[in-house]
Amino acid sequence: MLSSDMERFIEEDVGVWDDSSAWVPETDVCAAVIAREDCIISGLAEAVQILQHFGLSAVPLFDDGEFVPKDSQVMSIQGSARAVLQSERLALNILARMSGISTLTRQCVLAAGGRARIAATRKTTPGFRFFEKKAVFLGGGDTHRFNLSDAVLIKDNHIKICGLEECLRRAKERASFTRKIEVEVESQEEMLAAAEGGADIIMFDNMSPQTVADAVRLLSEKGLREGIILEASGGISPENVGEYSACGVDVLSLGALTRNARWIDLSLEIST
């Protein structure tokens, strides 16, 4: 059974009438999806769902989240030539987008060397967030919040409106005991206030690696480091992940995982 998301994607892509392939004979063909470059493949489950909706037999040759060498076949397909042509682009689009995110995530995870967890942000495509976050997970990253109800995140604009102390007071008063409270800080003063005020997570926002390292050291010196999750975000890229991961934080969150990931080059070839 198709998920509502897949139904929406198919309706958007096919439209009310397919003038491009409706005239193609109902001949059975064999086809394969081929990776034209090394990648971490993801989106196979979604591609299979789409292809099966069109009556095709689709068999993944790798698992989602697995490394795929260049020129490998990642899926075999059998069935109506017309159905293959109708479903080809949608299946490839989802595979290429999700695999691009998984591949970039894996690169960042390796660059971090196990010193910090790599996480996504909410900088995602409206309507496609679940699949982008899933691709981060399949690449070895952390999905972070899916939506605003997953945790309390006190950001700079919250602080400008209410003040940090009041924000923390209200968050503790109103949020469920199951919700963690995270505070985005821009200075050591805000960091200390958040730690002393009982924040579960402190996020260093747009700070240099040296500034973050100094802040972590100060927390340790004041006996406030233990029990607090430390996160760095803003200005972090695949190029400087290694530098940030050496600062002593627990998490690095990168909007680049979903914002900057390029699509992986995949193609569908019919072999008849």
Give the SSE layout.
Blueprint: H1 4-14, E1 28-35, E2 39-40, H2 44-53, E3 57-60, E4 67-68, E5 73-80, H3 81-112, E6 117-119, H4 129-138, E7 152-154, H5 156-162, H6 164-174, E8 181-185, H7 188-196, E9 201-205, H8 209-221, E10 229-233, H9 241-245, E11 251-253, H10 256-259, E12 266-270
Parallel strand pairs: 6-11, 7-8, 8-9, 9-10, 10-11
Antiparallel strand pairs: 1-5, 1-12, 2-4, 3-5
Helix pairs in contact: 2-3, 3-4, 5-6
General description of the model:
- The longest helix is centred in the middle third of the chain and has 32 residues, at 81-112.
- Helices cover 41% and strands 19% of the residues.
- It is α/β, with parallel strands linked by helices and 272 residues long.
- It has helices at 4-14, 44-53, 81-112, 129-138, 156-162, 164-174, 188-196, 209-221, 241-245, 256-259, and strands spanning 28-35, 39-40, 57-60, 67-68, 73-80, 117-119, 152-154, 181-185, 201-205, 229-233, 251-253, 266-270.
- The strands form three sheets. It has a six-stranded parallel beta sheet with strand order 6-11-10-9-8-7. The chain has a four-stranded antiparallel beta sheet with strand order 3-5-1-12, with helices on one face. The protein has a two-stranded antiparallel ribbon with strand order 2-4.
- It is built from ten helices and twelve strands.
- α8 (209-221) links the parallel β9 (201-205) and β10 (229-233).
- It folds into two domains: 4-109 and 261-270, Aldehyde Oxidoreductase, domain 3; 151-254, Aldolase class I (TIM Barrel).
